[in-house]
Structures are given as C-alpha cells and as structure tokens.
Amino acid sequence: MSSPKTIRWGILATGGIAVTFTKDLLVDPTTRGVKHIKHTVVAAASSSSKSRAESFLKDVGAPSEAKAYGSYEELVKDPNIDIIYIATPHSHHYQNAMLCLEAGKNVLCEKAFTVNAAQARALADRAKEKGLFLMEAVWTRYFPLSVYVREQITSGRIGPVARVFADNSMATNPEEAWKDGKHRMVNPELAGGALLDLGIYSLTWVFQTLYHTQPESARKPPKVLAALKNYGATQDADETTTVVLSFPRSEELGGDAHAIATTSIRIATTPGGNTDAPGIRIQGPKGEIQVFPPAFRPTKTKIIGKDGSVEEKEWPQPGPGEGSGWYNGFGGGKNAEGEGHGMFWEADEAASALVEGRKEGKYEGLEESIVIMEVMDEVRRQGGLTYPEKIETTKYPTQL
Ligand SMILES: NC(=O)C1=CN([C@@H]2O[C@H](COP(=O)(O)OP(=O)(O)OC[C@H]3O[C@@H](n4cnc5c(N)ncnc54)[C@H](OP(=O)(O)O)[C@@H]3O)[C@@H](O)[C@H]2O)C=CC1
Ligand SMILES: O=C1OC[C@@H](O)[C@H](O)[C@H]1O
Fold first, then answer.
1. Residue owning the nearest CA to atom 2 of ligand 1
2. Confidence tier at 347 by pLDDT (50, 70, 90)
3. Which Pfam families match (predicted)?
4. CB within 6 Å of ligand 1 — which residues?
5. Which ipTM did the prediction report?
C-alpha cells in the first residue's frame, strides 16, 4: 500500500465545535483503522483577533508552525490549505462558504448547511463551476453505526422501510440558559431555534433511512406537514417543531413511506439523560431498527425481528479520548473513558474525497443537502418562521 496522503486543513472560526472538531482531526487515523490519509492543521482564523486564533491553535495541540489569522479573508488566501472547515453559526455559513469557494478552497461546512435551500443551491452551483469539493458536515452520517444501519436496510433485513420516528431533543430552560437571547440557539440573527440546530439530525435519520437508501433514480422529495411552536421569549426562533413526511414509493415497495421528525430545546428525547428508550425507530414489515439517544452521537442499536429476535450492538467511538473533548451547544459533557468524539469520520470522508478527486460527500451529496434544506424551508413557511433578510439572502457579499 502507498504511503498515506496528508490533507492540510484550515479552520475558520474558533468557537466550541471548532475546538472539538480540530482535536478529533488531530487524532492519529490508524487508531480507527484508517491508513490511506492523514490530517494536519496548517492554519486557523478568528474574526475576533489573531491572538484568539493563536490560543485556539495552542489549545487544540496544532503543529507549532500552523498560522494564526485575525480574519477569515486572510485564511482563504493561504496557499498551503487543501480544505477549510467552517464552524461559524448557521447564519454565517453561506457568506463564509462562498468566501472560501471564491478563493478556490474546498469546503467542509458545519450543519445546518445554510439558512435556506436557495443559499445551498447557490453554493452547490459555485462549487461545481469552480470544480471544488463541498460537503455539509453532518458528522453522524459518517459513523460506522450509520453505515451499519443503512446496510441493514439495503440488505432487506427489515423489508422496505415503511415508517420512521426520529427525535432529537434536548431539555433546557431557555429563558434561564440563554437569558439575554443572544445565544446562537435562540438568536434569530444567528438563525437560532430547534429546527436548524437539532431538527437537522431528526431529518438526517429520516433521510438516511428513507431517501439515501433508495437507488438515486428512485429518490423523490417528501410531502411535508409541519407544526412549529415559537420560543415564547422572542417569537422568532422555534423551540419545538414536528414534521410529518410522506415519501413517494412504488406499490412494489409497499407504497408511500411515512416519517415523523421532531425536535425541541425544552423537552428531552428521554428524561434525565436516560438512554434506555430509542430516539429513532425504523420500521419495516420484517422488523424494527432502533437507535438510542443522542441522535447526533448514538452508540447503541437494537434490531427487533418480527419473530421476536433481538440483536443489540454497541458502537463506542475509537480513542484516544483524552483531549478529544465532548462539546454541545448546551454546555458540554464528557465522552466515555478513552473515546474520541467521532468527528474524525466526516473529516476522513472529506480527505478521502480530495484524494480520489470526488467533489461531494459519499453519504450525503449536495442534492440531498438541498432537498433537506427545502424541507426545512417548507416547515418554516408553514410555521411562519422567517429570519432577518441579511441572513436569508443569496446576495454575496453581504455584511452580517
Ligand atoms: N456537529 C456538531 O456536533 C455540532 C455542530 N455545531 C454547529 O457548529 C456551528 C457553530 O456552533 P458553536 O461552535 O457551538 O458556536 P460558538 O458560538 O461556540 O462558535 C461560533 C464561532 O463562530 C465565529 N463567529 C463569527 N461571527 C459570529 C457571530 N456573529 N456570532 C457568533 N459567533 C460568530 C466565532 O469565532 P471567531 O471569533 O473565532 O471568528 C465563534 O466563536 C453551528 O452551525 C452549529 O450548528 C455546534 C455544536 C455541535
Ligand atoms: O450539532 C449539534 O449537536 C449537539 C447539540 O448539542 C448542538 O447544539 C448541535 O449544534
């Protein structure tokens, strides 16, 4: 086998998830059996100051020669970068990703990809025109657990999937946790709310089981019916949102398949952090696949056959754990002893794509990211939720 190719990353923004992602990125890939690529961090930029970027690089343990920039504009000009990871709030993804693409850089952009589908389409078009790689960083899709679940479906283990329940909810007291309304979870200026931040994972489970598992020619967008409850304190970000989806299917496959995707920042999937009840249930005529919470980082699956058989599997994240961090927008937590966080899987996929010359992610291409954004647009339309024009626009550049 030839020696591994090293992919040189630039990190755009230095907040919570940027730290977790970059620590995971710097874990030796052979600890998870990946031998064809390596990652290194060659630069990071903070919009606040160069010194913040310097502390970030130190904190994550980046190589000492990595460059620190005090603006995103300087970062995208760095000729040593192969790909940029964007870790700003959703409101900023469109402008930041366009900045990278215009400068000729490949991009891995945090979820939710953009604020709306028009922005996602514009990015996909620009990436195509420029021959650049572009992928939404929905890390969960790249977990071995997700690969396994999709394989169980495509191999026919539970028959054609007829119905999916998917919940990704986390209980907070938003009035208390985010009193001043400025936190990205509730701030409309940052495209806050449950749907774009957490609901994206409920929709990810629905799409990766009901859409992605279909042959490409058979994938059809679903019909959508939504209930959206606004966050009382501001009325311009959602706190609990539920979507009923109906995916067109041939009679041969049992006719249309249904899904319920739900999300909340006030009510938990299961109370008290209990992970004994499945947050995701994928049902077919021959049985059910269950995935246990949290939906964004699950580590347990159960398959229950129609005959009553039960197969449980644990999916711990590989090491090294120490230093890898466990971050969420709700104040953080801790990985099980010795486990990494799991963000390296999506980084490996992006790096592999660069090595192979692919321009999109293998487990969620741009077309699918756009269809999901279209669903979220429709949910917001039915629920009457709009964000400020400056973050909904496709005009580039726009000052945010
Ligand atoms: N995959 C996952 O598990 C997770 C993904 N996320 C996603 O990552 C993104 C960032 O979330 P998170 O890291 O929690 O956010 P943070 O608020 O912790 O960090 C966001 C960073 O973006 C930069 N930024 C630029 N402009 C602004 C602005 N106007 N307001 C706030 N920040 C700004 C700042 O970095 P600087 O000053 O250096 O420029 C800031 O530190 C979101 O899209 C979120 O959905 C979040 C948590 C978990
Ligand atoms: O992507 C995410 O996953 C974990 C959540 O806690 C966080 O808010 C969200 O952004």
1. 17
2. very high
3. GFO_IDH_MocA (PF01408), GFO_IDH_MocA_C3 (PF22725)
4. 13-18, 46-48, 52, 87-90, 92, 110-111, 139, 184, 190, 197, 296, 328-329
5. 0.99
Between CA 98 and CA 105, with CA 100 as vertex, the angle to 5 degrees is: 130
CA of 140 to the centre of ligand 1 (A): 18
Q: Which ligand is nearest to the CA of 87?
A: 1
Mean pLDDT of 108-116: 98
C-alpha 106: how far from its chain's center?
A: 17
- Mutation test of ligand 1: which of 184, 263, 390 has the most ligand atoms closer than 8 Å to its C-beta? 184
Q: What is the pLDDT of residues 166-187, one digit of tens each?
A: 999 999 988 898 999 999 999 9
CB contact set of 301 (below 8 Å; sequence gap of 6+): 145, 148, 149, 289, 290, 291, 292, 312, 313, 315
CATH of segment(s) 144-296+298-314: 3.30.360.10
Provide the percentage of residues in the chain whose pLDDT is more than 90.
Answer: 89
CA 313 to ligand 1 centroid distance, Å: 33
Give residue 21's Cα distance to chain centre: 12
